[in-house]
Write a sequence for this structure.
């Protein structure tokens, strides 16, 4: 896990290729959420303050391997200029003679942003020649895009064969440090909280976590497949019939390891996602055949909070219900507050979970909020992340 970090490099007079994650939401030509941009600013300033220049690179959206003005990084360049108070030139492409000439002309303090890497199909193909062209633009490689670290793409993996040293940016280093603290040296008891819609999306994750955690909380839509495996009727709730046996096997494995698994004891039910009337809380043995569970109930929140009160480390991914609907957000917010009040070191990842933390107003009580989605999950599943493995180890 210990990787070379950008602040350990000699940046003076060096052109630094900085792979960032500027895959931000746009409203036409305006960035509507610059969280991912501001997250990389410490690394950008680290390079510039160290006397280096920057070749910034990122993907944006899915332009399908060809130029598409809708996915241009121009709005990102304009937002970066505003945040940094200095020019950020958007180059017309990410490879080619003009780009090479502009990169060679960089002086300390200069910044250029390459146009969308995914305008070329070679990026996602991890093409060797494309990676070599990118590597020729700079003297040093830095990756600060943990959110894309699970992708073996040319600007993430293949480029490090030709551009050394290859170091982690400050954001990447913080992500790795937080995740290392969970699995390599956790303060125990270590509890995991899992939610979200489908068991099939989280089955490998649950099985991996059972090798490491001291307790597990399961909510969200995925909980109903586990409840069904215990013989409970779940009405019209989200259910994966072909995963019921797998869910039962997970519970059997947890029992054999003496790992407590907390499932909901009550749920908020309604006729559907858009229900506004007839919503009520029932015990899990009382879910009507014609209704569906859309959130965990208050008794479940209390039970989960009691379990987490004794934890010293908590990792959480996925909401407890249909969080985007205000009527079904209370369970997720309640568990957020329980995590915040537990006093444990907590790491939270996933867009809905982060939104719940913000909604509950307890961001300052969370140990670390991961900016990554897929990479966060794949790390929790125990997979090797190409973008991390490609970086140089710390001395």
């Amino acid at each position: 896990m210990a990787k070379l970090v950008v602040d350990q490099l000699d940046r003076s007079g060096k052109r630094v290729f900085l792979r960032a994650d500027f895959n931000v939401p746009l409203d036409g030509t305006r960035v509507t959420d610059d969280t991912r941009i501001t997250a990389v600013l410490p690394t950008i300033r680290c390079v510039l303050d160290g006397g280096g220049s920057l070749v910034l690179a990122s993907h944006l959206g899915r332009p399908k391997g060809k130029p598409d003005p809708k996915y241009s990084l121009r709005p990102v360049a304009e937002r970066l200029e505003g945040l940094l108070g200095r020019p950020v030139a958007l180059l017309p492409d990410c490879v080619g003679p003009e780009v090479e000439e502009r990169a060679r002309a960089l002086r300390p303090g200069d910044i250029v942003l390459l146009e969308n890497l995914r305008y070329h199909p070679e990026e996602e193909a991890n093409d060797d020649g494309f990676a070599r062209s990118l590597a020729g633009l700079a003297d040093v490689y830095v990756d600060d895009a943990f959110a894309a670290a699970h992708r073996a793409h040319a600007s993430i993996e293949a480029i490090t064969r030709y551009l050394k040293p290859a170091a982690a940016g400050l954001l990447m280093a913080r992500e790795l440090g937080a995740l290392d603290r969970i699995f390599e040296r956790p303060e125990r008891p270590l509890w995991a909280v899992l939610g979200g819609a489908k068991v099939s999306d989280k089955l490998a994750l649950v099985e991996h976590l059972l090798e490491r955690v001291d307790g597990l909380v399961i909510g969200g839509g995925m909980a109903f497949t586990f409840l069904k495996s215990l013989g409970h009727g779940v009405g019209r709730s989200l259910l994966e019939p072909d995963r019921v046996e797998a869910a039962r096997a997970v519970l059997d494995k947890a029992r054999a390891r003496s790992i407590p698994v907390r499932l909901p004891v009550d749920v908020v039910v309604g006729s559907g996602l858009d229900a506004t009337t007839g919503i009520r809380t029932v015990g899990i043995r009382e879910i009507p055949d014609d209704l569906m569970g859309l959130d965990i109930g208050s008794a479940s929140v209390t039970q989960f909070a009691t379990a987490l009160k004794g934890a010293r480390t908590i990792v959480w991914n996925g909401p407890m219900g249909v969080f985007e609907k205000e009527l079904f957000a209370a369970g997720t917010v309640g568990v957020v507050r329980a995590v915040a009040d537990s006093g444990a070191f907590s790491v939270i990842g996933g867009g809905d979970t982060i939104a719940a933390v913000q909604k509950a107003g307890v961001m300052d009580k969370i140990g670390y909020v991961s900016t990554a989605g897929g990479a966060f999950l794949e790390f929790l599943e125990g997979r090797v992340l190409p973008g991390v493995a490609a970086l140089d180890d710390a001395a």
Remarks:
- The radius of gyration is 23 Å.
- DSSP finds 15 helices and 17 strands in the chain.
- The mean pLDDT is 95.
